[in-house]
Amino acid sequence: MKTLDNVDEMKKLDPSNVLGSIDLFPDQCLTAWTEASKVEFPQNYKQAANIVVCGMGGSRFTPKTIRELFFKEITVPYEIVDSYDLPGYVNEHSLVILSSYSGSTEEVISCGEQALEKKALLTGLAHGGKVIDLLKSNNLPYYQFDAKANPCGQPRVGGGYLLMGHLAFLSSLGFLHISQDEVISAIEYAQTQAKTLNANVPTEKNSAKQLAILLKDKHPFLIAGEFLRGAVNGFANQINETAKMISDFRYIPELNHHLMEGLMRPDTLHQNGLFVFLNSSLYSEKIQKRFAISKDVVEKQHVSTHVIELMGKTKLAQVLELFTLSGYTTFYLAMLYDTDPVAIPWVDYFKAQLAK
Fold it and tell me: Is residue 21 domain-shared with residue 126, that is, in the same domain?
């Protein structure tokens, strides 16, 4: 597409209605928070010594977002497993949460079976599939969502269900404390943001369309810190899958200890590289200072930079703000490349070969 202001042309490139799912992200969040908060857990679940969440792809970066967002508040060790096997320390005192949008992710199912063998405290979130069957057949607590607010059916744009479902689980279990008012306020803020970024808002007034134009034909390095470390992972995943474009996500302060020395080469980095700094006034003073100096170092090595200032009043509001921005931006990128945003041909090919 030559312009991002032709909504009819967008619809032709988007037969599965990915845009509709992105528009409904706040509805996903509200539904999941309301429904998952009603799941009842046995008392011994609330006394777990540690938490292990098993998930892949779009079902991984959502719990990771919660872990990073509440890194200093979650009261027990919390680990994300993105493979077939549980850590050796998992036992009957461990809470294992299966996270699979489809409910059919083989790595997650493998971990669920191991959790049963280890007699761990097991629960999960899914749309259906074997994950729900496993939990149901063992009379274990679970949250099954019907995903009405994700018409395209793709997990990466149905992230509101798993994101707020995980938050509701941890809140109900007592591993973190957040008020109903803060959650609802953050969701309302995401709704406000969506009204400024949707397809009917022209490019000249739409920061997501402007960002998509900036990112086109670039190799973006998405830079975040502290509570946004999980959400930036999701942004990069969506660029890969929705726009079919390479991306990297990096963290401050970690990148300050090595990455800055790698910006001299290759020469193409100075033509196509783009460091996108996700700034927040809610970062600690130390991290804010590092962001400013890091930007200076990158620019002194002749690599382009762009700054996004997140404006939500709370950390949760800024996470939902970033989810909203990334959803629209990556969709518009797909439009600029004349690409069906829902198609994942190489993932499908890989899975087909794996099944042989």
Answer: yes
